[in-house]
Here is the input.
Amino acid sequence: MNLRFLETFVWVARLRNFSLAAEKLCTTQAAVSNRIATLERELGVRLFERDLRTVSLTPHGQRALPQAEAIMRMVSELERTIADAGQMRGTVMIGAIDSIVYAWLPRLIERVKATYPNVAIDLNVDTSLNLARQIQDGQIDLGLIMGPVVAPHIRNIELCAFDCVWIGSPRLALKPGRLAVADLAGYPVFAYSKGSQPHQSVVRAIELAGVDTDTIRIFNSNSLATITRLIRDGVGVAALPRVVVQEFLDNGDLHVLDVDARLPPLHFHAVFNDDPGNALPALIADMAAEIATAPVAR
Here is the structure.
């Protein structure tokens, strides 16, 4: 049985469209139709019901799909195990959030360059919510985000967790020692994008402290560089992972505030489509997991 034909069957079944499968496989719709027809002749059954607008699996196709996906996954694992890294080529589109960029993304990029010298990287920095949508839409190959993403044909590899702390500038006129959430009311609290997990954690911490959220001004931004610049200038305080502001803590531009409101850690995942024809996202995801859990990454 031709593995390329089996891969074509998997993608037509997933996308429910011959044209989209052809685009995904970088071939023509006629070639896709021919591969499916040949596979059906070899198996002696019809795999798809076709009409002018839709493509759907027959009962035979529904039974065949999990086994075909398992075979392609085994082939991909074999390629990952024995492939010559120096001979791998292509472009990998990686989406990452700011927190990963500030923490250990440069070391991942360096490792990829050294291991796969003929592989190019397209990098997109965005929010976890946007990157999750782009992964599912096939716009990026690998996302390094606050996950996981629960969706068909999506794989998640746990990377790391970052502890969050309250951060502020030494120039703020806050009382020394232990602070209540109410003591922050004179300053805006900077958080990640509205609706994101860190933003929700800040809102919950304020509510659990018994403080009306209307009395605490929460400013939202999807740019970590913007948040750190504003709090370094004494504009307000922020709830951030310690690791992403460690440089500013070390040089005294910022310090940790002893606020009596605990913030939960942020959990990060490498997320990618379970694509049997592209082993690179999985390989780089494994590399990211190794780097993220190294002692220096913490």
In short: Residues 88-159+268-297 form a domain with the D-Maltodextrin-Binding Protein; domain 2 fold (CATH 3.40.190.10). The radius of gyration is 24 Å. The longest helix spans residues 59-82.
